[in-house]
Hints:
alpha/beta, 8-stranded mixed β-sheet, two-stranded antiparallel ribbon
Amino acid sequence: xxxxxxxxxxxxxxxxxxxxxxxxxxxxxxxxxxxxxxxxxxxxxxxxxxxxxxxxxxxxxxxxxxxxxxxxxxxxxxxxxxxxxxxxxxxxxxxxxxxxxxxxxxxxxxxxxxxxxxxxxxxxxxxxxxxxxxxxxxxxxxxxxxxxxxxxxxxxxxxxxxxxxxxxxxxxxxxxxxxxxxxxxxxxxxxxxxxxxxxxxxxxxxxxxxxxxxxxxxxx
Amino acid sequence: xxxxxxxxxxxxxxxxxxxxxxxxxxxxxxxxxxxxxxxxxxxxxxxxxxxxxxxxxxxxxxxxxxxxxxxxxxxxxxxxxxxxxxxxxxxxxxxxxxxxxxxxxxxxxxxxxxxxxxxxxxxxxxxxxxxxxxxxxxxxxxxxxxxxxxxxxxxxxxxxxxxxxxxxxxxxxxxxxxxxxxxxxxxxxxxxxxxxxxxxxxxxxxxxxxxxxxxxxxxx
Lengths: 220, 220
């Protein structure tokens, strides 16, 4: 499968590398075609890995994964434009994190809005699925780093796209389908993006590393 | 122990009833001394249960549990005033939920602020501990409704107060101390209050009942 990864950070690297390893052809997109991070990534992985602009990467991919910094995702996608994204599944992995004036990490917008919704609204012909944004990138691609059952949350307005993404998350990364919880339409992105402040506190203040996850335990 | 419950809703009822059952003397506070819900609650439970105003209840309690609707908590506490709360532990159980114009449930404030912080700021001589606000009230008082290990989050600026509350949550309701995660200072209230949108979606859209909880699973 031809997959576009938009973003050259930790998340883009982790996802892109794993996808090449499991046999896909991946183009990592960034603002400039000669971005050093993307070129280094591509050259380290051989002929199934490429570097290109956001726009060229998106045009290449049959499926697009958006994992730029969440406060820059809209700008990156606007540089792509609607056509290269038309009818494609776009998996939005990002959280709109920014630094507050006191140095703390906050969301740039939330509660009555979310990045997932903003992308869908700007690209109505694209099948946006919010997924993977509640776990660290090393857990994304290797869920067994965290023992036993634990959950991913998925949401989107296109039921068939969510089904496809659920299947991909199983095939690519080994997530058990029964541990992927479909939260419904894209307004549920608000909820998963708003888990970030607790996640950051658990990471920085309690656990000390990012390899943990939520398991939703159901009672009677 | 003499305990004040501020609020006559589901949460106040559940907590107050359980606390009377395990041997404490509880006054349920409300806006008016002759509030029917509080008086019915008190008369159903016998001589260790009382109804009073917010102010009289808080004055009565050695410890105060704030469980009014989160958008009304500040008003209720302002009607108490600083003196009856001085040096006491106040457990803030509420979330500042309100209905958006489209009928959806949102937070009245979040991200750079939280109810826990607002209470502490308004009552600096009170030992505010945020706890229990991430689970349904029936799970609060009976954690075994949800099988196996699952977590409560606690935060506050007073370490000794958090230790005491952890002990109470074990003694009163049966929470295992090792499942109560101390998130640090009260700014962590932002994170636990911001879990409400996901919680609401899981409740209403996925699980269909409120008896579930989060288990934080740690990996390597």
